[in-house]
Backbone:
């Protein structure tokens, strides 16, 4: 049976359309969005965003808000401007109130919102696809010149197949799918990039780099947001007739970029939700869904990642900080060859799922990257145990978080520090219930008594090997023997039995930790 996809919340829907498709006036309550409806007097299904073209009057708009609220809608979108009383009623009802941006027709807005509301079940393509290439060819045919379409990061998304003479920068741009750095720097200096972001309309920019020809630049803008630009090998602005046709084509290109960005965002959200479910031991669609998550080969291990200074506990529980941590590590892992890192927030930490080996996504690979590229201080890579089945992953997550919160830094594996972790947990859990052994010591031991305790602990660590205990303490073996003799004079405890050695060893460690931990007033 096909499993129903989880609905996006209103806040998630608005994250990518506010400013570009709608202008939010009243945020409303964050609720699950189940779909889109047009206001036509018919009953509204719960969880719908309602589009209300033609609803103009203040009284009519207030009545529409109250009706939509009673029927379980989550928001209402109107033509601008919205009256103050309408905003007040939206706040009273707890509904989203938004205005359509004038540059989008109602059918275009509906298409954009429907795409955003539909959570994808798998990743979308990385590029906008054939539609942008077709638009680039159409613009080239209209203006009789070569065309490239770029995003706001100067990445080339599409280019025309025709367009006459080429220059060196166009050839380099197409081959690398990115504008050369020296040209980006030049266009930043001459103000071209600033004019693109301002979205003031088409303009011609000259270049002084080599024999590069001038460019006609058309910002791609939806609402108040710039999404990219069109670059044409042309040294003049088009006339009025060409401008009208060009505006239609560039508007279509801007809508294509907006839809692609929403698809990318939806795919990222779905991927993050799937990883979180996997870390909980509950993949959303069962084991069959794992194949689409770009997971490394089993066995897996969870790895807690932290890049910062100070105790690990200082940055836990902070969702914004953890989100930045995930973004930082995702970028680092991608730059080093892992196309889709499996990383999410779990148990208050940034957790990645890695496989074995030295290939991208493997534990040995990550250790090599961290050792080579990150500073030794303040970075923690804490790995849980390796698990052979997906069901064991939550245990590995718990291991990794325990290692992280124990205060270790650098590259640390649960396998390496398990004994210390186990003893620490045992002392924390058991010692409040274990009475002190019958050894005559002061309530606050003197310096000499503390030396006796350290010697007892070292002798038990060394399993009764006096020379080994002496080496650990950096004293002569005869000094160890002398101190043990003094201890025997203070107790009738028989340390030849396993039980007495075990509990005395735990007590000695806890007592030394108490005495050597600075106290604050």
Residues:
């Amino acid at each position: 049976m096909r499993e129903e996809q989880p609905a996006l919340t209103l806040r998630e829907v608005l994250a990518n359309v506010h400013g570009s498709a709608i202008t939010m006036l009243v945020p409303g309550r964050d609720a699950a969005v189940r779909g889109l409806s047009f206001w036509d007097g018919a009953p509204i299904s719960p969880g719908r965003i309602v589009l209300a073209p033609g609803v103009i009057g203040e009284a009519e708009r207030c009545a529409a808000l109250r009706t939509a609220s009673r029927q379980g809608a989550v928001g209402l979108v109107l033509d601008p401007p919205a009256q103050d009383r309408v905003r007040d009623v939206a706040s009273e009802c707890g509904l989203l109130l938004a205005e359509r941006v004038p540059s989008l027709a109602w059918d275009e807005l509906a298409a954009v919102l429907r795409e955003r509301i539909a959570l994808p079940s798998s990743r979308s393509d990385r590029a906008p696809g054939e539609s942008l290439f077709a638009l680039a060819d159409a613009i080239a045919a209209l203006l009789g010149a070569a065309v490239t379409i770029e995003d706001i990061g100067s990445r080339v998304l599409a280019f025309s197949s025709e367009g006459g003479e080429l220059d060196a920068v166009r050839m380099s741009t197409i081959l690398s799918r990115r504008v050369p750095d020296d040209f980006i720097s030049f266009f930043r200096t001459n103000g071209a990039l600033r004019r693109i972001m301002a979205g003031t309309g088409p303009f011609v920019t000259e270049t002084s780099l080599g024999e590069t020809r001038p460019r006609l630049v058309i910002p791609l803008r939806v609402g108040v947001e710039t999404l990219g630009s069109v670059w044409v090998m042309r040294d003049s602005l088009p006339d009025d007739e060409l401008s009208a046709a060009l505006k239609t084509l560039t508007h279509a290109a801007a809508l294509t970029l907006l839809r692609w960005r929403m698809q990318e965002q939806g795919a990222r959200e779905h991927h993050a939700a799937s990883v979180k479910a996997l870390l909980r031991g509950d993949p959303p669609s069962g084991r069959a869904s794992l194949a689409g998550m770009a997971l490394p080969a089993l066995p897996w291990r969870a790895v807690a990642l932290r890049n910062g200074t100070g105790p690990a506990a200082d940055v836990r529980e902070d969702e914004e900080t953890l989100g930045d941590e995930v973004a930082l590590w995702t970028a680092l892992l991608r730059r080093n060859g892992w196309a889709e890192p499996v990383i999410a927030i779990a148990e208050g930490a940034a957790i990645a799922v890695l496989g074995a080996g030295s290939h991208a996504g493997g534990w040995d690979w990550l250790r090599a990257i961290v050792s080579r590229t990150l500073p030794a201080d303040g970075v923690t890579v804490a790995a849980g145990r390796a698990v052979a089945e997906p069901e064991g992953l939550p245990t590995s997550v718990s291991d990794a978080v325990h290692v992280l919160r124990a205060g270790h830094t650098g590259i640390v594996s649960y396998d390496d520090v398990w004994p210390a972790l186990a003893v620490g947990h045992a002392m924390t859990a058991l010692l409040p219930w274990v009475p002190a052994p019958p050894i005559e010591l002061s309530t606050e031991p003197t310096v000499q008594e503390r030396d006796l305790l350290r010697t007892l602990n070292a002798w038990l660590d060394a399993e009764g090997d006096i020379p080994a205990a002496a080496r650990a303490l950096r004293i002569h073996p005869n000094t160890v023997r002398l101190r043990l003799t003094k201890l025997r004079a203070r107790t009738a405890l028989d340390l030849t039995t396993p039980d007495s050695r075990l509990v005395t060893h735990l007590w000695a460690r806890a007592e030394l930790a108490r005495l050597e931990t600075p106290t604050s007033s």
Q: What stands out?
A: Confidence is low (pLDDT under 50) at residues 120-127, 309-316. DSSP finds 17 helices and 15 strands in the chain.
